[in-house]
Amino acid sequence: MVTPIANSRYSLHLVFSTEKPKHWVLSVIYNSQNIHLQKVLWRDLTGISTLNLPWILTGDFNAILTNEEHRGRGFDHYSIKSKIFNEFVIANHLQDFGFYGSPYTWCNNQQGLARRWARLDRFLANSDWLNNFDSYITKHLPRTASDHSPLFLNAKFFCQPKYKVFRFENYWFDYEKCHQNVYKAWSCSTNGSPMHAFNHHISKTRDYLAKWKAKGISSLDRDIGKTKEEITHLESLEASSIFFNLSSLVLRGLYSKHSALLRQNAIKWAQRARLMWLRNGDYNTSFFHKQARARNHRNKISAITDDQGNLQTDHQNIAKAFTEFYAKLWTTYSNTSIEDLIVSMPNDLPALTDRYNEILTRPVTPLEIYQTLKSMPKGKSPGPDGFNVEFYLYYWEIVKDSLLSAVSHFFQTTSLPNAWAELSLS
After folding, report:
1. Which PANTHER family does this chain map to (predicted)?
2. Which of 19, 51, 122, 405 yields a CA-CA distance of 20 to 30 A from 65?
3. Domains in the chain, ordered, with CATH?
4. pTM here?
């Protein structure tokens, strides 16, 4: 069912009632070229965003977001409009869909130096709308009957269940059970090479923590809500005769618990948003939610062009295109041997001095590995094993001996387990 809720000379707003999402807003835009009228429209659209519903906008915005969206003379015509348009998009937490096809959606169809192109038409949406779909792509169709390109949006749901990838959460450092499980995993005896032993410890740690997370940690949002209810109840009794000193102690404990839960929730969502500047006291988790969703939108691969030039939008075909590309990239078809390469090298190649040769071939030390870990940026995505830099630094005293043996074994044998070369695409 479609219900018009507002319209003006430059916009039409419709509420759609569907199965998923249940209710969402579509705003169709045909913006004015006049900058003052554009400001009025941006202000009106900001009012629509306060409905807190999934929201998608499309049409001719008569403005661009970046310099790259314009070609030809007359960019000054768009520069101020671009600044105001960007402010509107950022203030309302909207995401641009990107596109496939021509980089421009409008052309003035003039000849020579007077010809201009611009990307004036697009789709924008808030995170509530984007999170209802697994895939969405926009195509710029040929402008055969107009100076504007038609836009085609294809949004999909993926039926297959998503594979859950293990990722270590930094807020787990607050739990004693986390430390116990890590110590337990690295206390297990192992057989095989040092690299396989290290891989065994990591695998055990991942299994223990995953089971503990499933059974031992309740939802932070649920705990925060429950704690707030308990605080509200005790605060309502403060003015009554049944509020005792014991109740006051319990209330102070709940305040401390609530503060700790907020901090853990902030750390959790800041980590997912890859925000590296989080400090104690930054508890604006709604902001972190939006940052995490925006990051997921930017990283989502909804379509890819394969080696044959075909656009693949199906989830399985996208995975197949990745696999085939890298299989060809890393497969050699040359019959040239190492000996042939050495013989073909010139004789005047520069050689390492004895000092540098000694530096490169000396055994790796624990300090070198630790300093390398400390130099790596915090808040980044974990490796295929699911553990980030913070994990290795925090548990350095537990993992260092096994990690040193594994690294030293690699430099001695140049052998790398397959699990260390894996990459997760989700």
Report:
1. BNAC02G09200D PROTEIN, ENDONUCLEASE_EXONUCLEASE_PHOSPHATASE DOMAIN-CONTAINING PROTEIN
2. 51
3. 2-156 (3.60.10.10), 160-426 (no CATH)
4. 0.54
With b meaning 16 or more CB within 10 Å and e meaning fewer, what string describes 251-278? beebeebbeebbbbbbbbbbbbbebeeb
Distance CA 137, CA 202 (A): 38
* Residue 394 identity: Y
Q: What is the pLDDT along the chain (426 residues), one digit of tens a residue?
A: 888 888 889 999 999 988 777 889 999 999 999 999 999 999 999 988 888 889 999 999 999 999 899 998 777 778 899 999 999 999 998 989 888 889 999 998 888 888 999 999 999 999 888 888 877 889 999 888 889 999 999 887 765 555 677 888 888 888 888 899 999 999 988 888 888 899 899 999 999 998 888 876 667 667 777 777 777 777 776 666 565 666 677 778 888 877 877 776 776 666 555 544 444 444 455 555 555 555 566 667 777 888 888 888 777 788 888 888 888 877 766 677 777 877 888 888 888 888 888 888 888 999 999 999 999 988 777 777 889 899 999 999 999 999 999 999 988 887 777 666 665 554
Measured CA angle at 30 (ends 28, 35), to 5 deg: 130
Phi/psi zone of residue 7: left (φ > 0), alpha (ψ -120 to 50 degrees), beta? beta
Instruction: Please report the sign of the dihedral spanned by the C-alpha atoms of residue 340, residue 346, residue 347, residue 349.
Output: negative
